[in-house]
Write a structure and sequence with these properties.
This protein is α/β, with parallel strands linked by helices. It has a domain at 51-181: 3-Layer(aba) Sandwich (Glutaredoxin). Helices cover 30% and strands 23% of the residues. It contains six helices and eight strands. It has a six-stranded mixed β-sheet, with helices on one face. Strands 1-2 form a two-stranded antiparallel sheet. The longest helix has 17 residues, at 88-104.
Length: 188
């Protein structure tokens, strides 16, 4: 029953669409009402990311439990990062993500840190460690599964159209990649 419930949550929780030759994982399960849905997610790396690989940001956002106000994510660049309070490399990335948020949020970049931990654990951690960007919970870790997260921290940079343009360890994200997805960047 647990497997069927998990697969149903995957089917309902997100709708990610990928076109191209990126590494993918498809999971199928019976969704409520007896329909079958297929979930496809990209596990792209900077070297093999196809410009056509897309994430349905609206579907992704509707199934996260945001701590604080839910940001408007559609039509803007997005950096999503999977992390946990117990993960030392994740903790080390927080200062970097705070700096990126301070520098690029007003220019259109939205950063969302996604944890699969309990709300009380994450809120307690945030009370001691400032995280100046949006934090959300992936209670059943359905998104982590959909994105094929094998280790944390792991981040994906999406352009305003939801195309994956970069993935990797958040500290390795270069400012040139961010600049390319900002609204005022010229594509010469």
């Amino acid at each position: 029953m647990k497997t069927k419930t998990f697969l149903s949550l995957l089917s309902v929780a997100v709708s990610l669409t990928v076109v191209g030759t990126c590494a993918t994982l498809a999971q199928s399960g019976a969704a409520p009402g007896g329909t079958t849905a297929t979930l496809v997610a990209a596990a792209a790396s900077p070297a093999n990311t196809e410009s056509s690989a897309r994430v349905n940001v609206s579907a992704l956002a509707t199934h996260l439990d945001f701590l604080g106000d839910k940001p408007a994510l559609d039509g803007r660049p997005l950096l999503i990062e999977f992390w946990a309070t117990w993960c030392q490399p994740c903790r080390a990335s927080i200062a970097h993500l705070n700096e990126l948020n301070e520098k690029y949020h007003d220019r259109g970049l939205e950063i969302v840190g996604i944890s699969g931990e309990e709300k009380s654990v994450v809120e307690g951690f945030r009370a001691r460690t400032p995280m100046n960007y949006t934090v959300a919970l992936d209670a059943n870790q359905a998104l982590a599964g959909a994105f094929q997260v094998q280790a944390i921290p792991q981040a994906w940079l999406l352009d305003k159209d939801g195309r994956i343009v970069w993935s990797g360890h958040p500290i390795a994200l270069d400012e040139q990649s961010i600049a390319r997805v900002l609204p005022n960047h010229s594509k010469n």
